[in-house]
Write a structure and sequence with these properties.
The chain contains six helices and nine strands. By secondary structure, it is α/β, with parallel strands linked by helices. It folds into two domains: 2-122 and 180-220, Alpha/Beta hydrolase fold, catalytic domain (Rossmann fold, 3-Layer(aba) Sandwich); 124-179, no CATH class. The chain has a seven-stranded mixed beta sheet with strand order 1-2-4-3-5-6-9, with helices on both faces. Strand 3, helix 1 (38-56) and strand 4 form a beta-alpha-beta unit. Helix 1 (38-56) packs across helix 6 (209-220), helix 3 packs across helix 5 and helix 4 packs across helix 5. The chain is globular, with a radius of gyration of 17 Å.
């Protein structure tokens, strides 16, 4: 079902954000933190299919829009990783989450105090490199002379638009420094254990039932998860 939750803002207020929930008041309750930026678009259908599979496995799950994401009215250019981490913690509390499932760079904002699973986690620097590469290709096609070093230097100071996403200077700097390492009580799932080509590598958004079912099964069978 589609519901809402209240995300903290930097000025002490809250914003009402959308929440997709499979909530039957079961013992295991998973906060889902999706991939970020362009990868979020490519993996949106996959993420929902994982949640459907978790629901069928008897696990509640919750996918919150964070400020600046999807239908949020909060400007993306005012967000950074610190704000998203705070919002993710608030969402976990409001959803009574017992664990997390993060996807790709979603691992960078997952509450570290909760047990959880990180699917194919990546560093912020790797995410930025892919987005900068996409911008350079578009710039070359438009006859604009740009390079990654110059774009990065400018982004650290004034922010940047990458693949249509307005990224603040603080967001850029925090992403550069976010190494994506997953430590207990969270565990990482390497995509190689899932099989097939990662959906984030495809040119357009896509889905793969086998992959979504495999991820959900590994979350459901994860030993040591809260119950």
């Amino acid at each position: 079902m589609i519901s809402t939750w209240h995300a903290p803002q930097g000025d002490g207020t809250t914003s009402e954000e959308l929440l997709i929930a499979f909530d039957r008041s079961r013992d295991r309750r998973v906060l889902v933190l999706p991939a970020l930026f362009d990868e979020a678009n490519k993996l949106r259908r996959f993420t929902i299919e994982v949640m459907r599979a978790l629901d069928q496995a008897g696990i509640d799950c919750f996918l919150p829009d964070l400020p600046g994401q999807n239908e949020s009215l909060s400007p993306l250019e005012r967000q950074d990783l610190s704000a998203w981490r705070e919002a993710a913690r608030a969402a976990a509390i409001q959803c009574n989450a017992t664990e997390t499932l993060s996807i790709r760079a979603g691992a960078l904002i997952a509450p570290t105090e909760l047990p959880g699973t990180a699917y194919a986690p990546i560093s912020g620097a790797k995410l930025l490199r892919a987005m900068i590469r996409a911008r350079l290709i578009a710039s070359q096609e438009a006859g604009i002379d740009e390079n990654s070093q110059g774009l990065s230097a400018a982004a650290r100071d004034k922010g940047i638009i990458l693949a249509g996403w307005p990224i603040s200077a603080s967001m850029f700097r925090e992403l550069e420094a976010a190494d994506g390492q997953v430590a207990p009580p969270r565990v990482a799932i390497d995509h190689k254990t899932i099989g097939g080509r990662g959906l984030w590598l495809r040119a357009e958004p896509d889905e793969d039932t086998a992959q979504s079912q495999a991820v959900a099964m590994m979350v459901a069978e994860r030993s040591g998860a809260s119950s």
